[in-house]
Design brief:
By secondary structure, the chain is of the alpha+beta class. 42% of the residues lie in helices and 26% in strands. The strands form three sheets. It has a five-stranded antiparallel beta sheet with strand order 2-1-5-4-3. A five-stranded mixed beta sheet has the order 7-9-10-12-11. Strands 6-8 form a two-stranded antiparallel ribbon. Helix 4 packs antiparallel against helix 5 and helix 7 packs antiparallel against helix 8. It is elongated, with a radius of gyration of 26 Å.
Length: 341
């Protein structure tokens, strides 16, 4: 039987296959990890016996078997002897294959919500990047003409006080040009090389200390393996987050690193990933912009360009990773997950 469903062994999602009596006949490795039980102990057991809300789940199983539709029973609770119960999202699909009746996909509710949020953010970021890229190209062309015209006009003016106005035009055109260049920067391909995450963090630490005088505490996991990435892009991503914390008035910033095993990032399952937390004690991200904090031109600071976190998210996405955050006054945590491929 296991050979019949060998392709399911590669899935990141926990999957179990049931017969007509709703008895487990197969469980993939992801299901073993999720249910913290070996396949030998799962196979032959009634599927409903694992959950507290059996009536709701049984209705979903019956409906899927009879009507051939997919059914989700979100609030099913996996009960384990001597352990805390775990809420799952369970999707049931009829398969009619190899004498089996149903395939059930299981995800913890928290992980399901995180995966959906990551997918939504990735889609929004892609749309925003294209919008900003097109906008930047459209703005750059007239900027050159504007600056050139101001320079020509300055040569024709005899009164010094009038030249001050042309200098304002030229300087503001240069400032906008720099901003447009920053908006277009992420579109170069990453230059990949083996590197250590702590090397990146030490570089950022020295830059932030020199620029703002903020001391950054370290809480490093010395067992972290190397990853393959673009050193400059990762430095810039972390630097943008740390700078935001310093500019917001944080008195203490902490870099915390850990290794995470068996994690799903952007719908892909990885055996190992690196986690970086940038923790600060500043005023926090304003609540009214928390849903848009990674969008270009959104800033919670007066005079900010709103590009720092957008660029950081872009650079991390280039490394197949994600940035998440949680914030309240006095404690903000930006969490970067980078898979080891």
């Amino acid at each position: 039987m296991a050979a019949s469903f060998a392709g399911l062994d590669l899935l990141a999602t926990a999957v179990v296959v049931l017969d007509d009596e709703f008895v487990v006949r197969y469980a993939n490795p992801a299901a073993e990890n999720l249910l913290t039980t070996g396949a030998r102990s799962l196979i032959g057991q009634p599927f409903l016996g694992f959950f507290a809300e059996r009536a709701e789940l049984e209705r979903s199983l019956e409906d899927a078997r009879v009507i051939h539709w997919d059914y989700s029973a979100r609030n099913v609770t996996y009960v384990r002897t001597g352990r805390e119960p775990v809420p799952f999202s369970c999707t049931v699909t009829r398969i009619d294959s190899f004498g089996m009746a149903l395939l059930a996909e299981l995800r913890p509710i928290s992980e399901q919500l995180r995966i959906e949020r990551e997918a939504r953010m990735e889609s929004e970021q892609q749309a925003n990047r294209e919008l900003i890229r097109n906008l930047a190209h459209e703005i750059k062309n007239p900027l050159g003409g504007l600056r050139g015209s101001a320079q020509l006009l300055e040569r024709e003016l005899d009164r010094p006080e009038l030249r001050e106005y042309t200098q304002v035009i030229i300087k503001e055109a240069d400032r906008l040009q720099t901003l447009m260049d920053r908006m277009l920067t992420p579109h170069r391909a990453p230059r990949l090389e083996p590197l250590g995450l702590h090397e990146v963090l030490e570089r950022v630490r020295s830059l932030v200390k020199a620029e703002f005088g903020v001391l950054i505490e370290r809480d490093y996991d010395p067992s972290l393996p190397e990853l393959v990435g673009d050193r400059e892009q990762l430095i810039q991503a972390v630097l943008n987050i740390a700078r935001n914390a310093a500019q917001a008035g944080s008195k203490e910033v902490v870099f915390k690193t850990r290794a995470i095993r068996q994690i799903t990032i952007l719908k892909k399952r990885y055996k190992l990933a690196l986690e970086l937390q940038v923790i600060d004690d500043g005023p926090g991200v304003p609540e009214e912009i928390q849903d848009r904090i990674f969008n270009p031109l959104v800033s919670g600071r007066e005079g900010g360009t709103g590009l720092g976190l957008s660029l950081a998210q872009t650079f991390v996405h280039y490394h197949h990773g994600v940035i998440e955050f949680e914030s309240r006054p006095g404690r903000t945590i930006f969490r970067i997950l980078l898979p080891i491929r």
